[in-house]
Specification:
The protein has about 100 residues and is mainly alpha-helical. It has 4 helices and 2 strands; from the N terminus they run ββαααα. The chain has a single domain, classed as DNA polymerase, domain 1 (Orthogonal Bundle), CATH 1.10.150. α1 (about 30-40) packs across α4 and α3 packs across α4 (about 75-95).
Length: about 100
Amino acid sequence: MAFRFCRRLKIDFQAVLFDLDGTLLDTLADIACAANAGLRELGFPTHPVESYRRFVGDGAGSLALRIMPEGHQDDETVERCSQIIAAQHFAYLAAII
């Protein structure tokens, strides 16, 4: 598919990608479920789904940092939580597709 800008620039597209989380789909509950699974696995308390409205944005790493309890925001723990969140979220997506 070709698209022309101002008659001079022609760009050929191979694919078009959409970031659906929070833009076209309300996936807050799914993200909260994955993040709370990470917290549980690490032995930390979970958060209500609605709290995730202020936690999301800037990717799984930032989400993991924001949900961790104070005093447990070291790089290793945040990275482990981020990995769990991503694995849980992808497992959920794979199950519904």
